[in-house]
Batch of 2 targets.
Target 1
Amino acid sequence: MILQNYTLVTDFVLVGLPIQIAFLGMIFSFFFVIYIINLTANFCIMAVTFLDPALHTPMYFFLWNLAFLDICYSSVVVPKMLVDLISSEKKISFYGCLLQVHFFHFLGSVEVVLFSVMSYDRYVAIAHPLRYTTIMSPNTCLCLVLCTWVLAFCHALVHTVMTARLPFCGPNRVKHFFCDVKPLLMLACTDTSLNLRLVTRITGSWTTTTMLLTILSYIFISKFLFKIKTSQGRRRALSTCSAHLCVVSLQYGTAVFTYVRPTTKDSLDQDRMAAVLFTVITPALNPIIYTLRNKDMKKALKKLFMRSNN
């Protein structure tokens, strides 16, 4: 069996965030509210893009996928983190931990590739508006999304299998608020230098490559923006692109900070704080940023609320 392990450890204890007991209730309430905002806002985007025929375009198809991803991505981590904040037992089973590792890296990998796909979509819309519907046909969009999910699954599977094969014979306290590869490697009772290199190189290459593709798309987009003659058309294009750039900067910035730089025991504390940003805060901010910067989305939301009130 691929996931066979020869360990004495049957479960792990998640250390969690370094929070003083006096602030525990306030921190729990804050994270709970942010999670509810995340679910509500992303469900609204999914509903609006599905129900409004005017939003049945490639851009909003990818945005629907992003909203779905943000719900799933944060749900891998946040519910368990909230339970652990108010629980004395912060245990997670060995296989539960592996599942969390897999889905965290799987969904995170889908998201960063999806950002590249969305930036390419914006490039085609601005640079080739007359050929946009031909280039970004429904089949092309579906193929891009399916390939993204399959490649991301394979990428995450490498980390899961490599981690599952390590012997864990104690201690079992994970210095994080969820199971991630790097803090788990610190607990293995064998040499993990190969695993650390794999995390840095594979995940680092995955993140850096998709980030460079996104940057390249926006370099080409900037060239074509200056060719748009009307100021209204330029503002509309800039509004859509700036929303995407805000979201991309948050996600890539924290991913590069966590997985590209070398790992030390001291860096794990910094990783925990960065993880709060991309697992709790960013998924809730994404729909807000896209809605505030997108007139079509705001119009569609108003129509949906008016229809529900009638």
Target 2
Amino acid sequence: MVTAHQKRKIEGLSKRSHQDYKDKLQPVLLDKLTDEHPERRKELRETATVINYEQLKKSVLRDLSWLLNTVNLESIESLDGYDHVKSSTINFGVFPVAGQKMSEINQFEIQQQVKAAIIYFEPRILPNDLDVICELEESDLEHYNVLSLIIKGRLWCNPHPMEFFLRTSVDLESGHMEIKDEGRGSV
């Protein structure tokens, strides 16, 4: 459930619609520290400081997968009275859905929780343009324990934001979320 403090933080983050135009596409710290070519004695300076659109997309998809497949602290420990902890990296992840039936799922709540987690922990996605939608179709009856989410929005990048469209399948038996790039838009 999204608290008043979390709503205020989301509203504050939503005002972050763009970053300084002088910023370049840079990898996150983890990617800077990851040695893709350990056989090389000397790293190329450009590859450690600037990335292209494809690398950005790959990095965001990987990080979203980690985020959505991590159970947050709030789901196992009450954080009432600790509003700042609720929105900190200590609470990284989402509420688990493993073991629930499709009929028990509150779709609106799932949408809000996933959206809040993305806004808190994925700053490369512009919060004002982010939409998370539960998708139920007749074909979903065949996969009665799989919930589909559509995640769409724009990634911050220079010279202009790139659109993305992702489909997430949530296995309600295991809780595992699989993210697929649907290839619509620029990402």
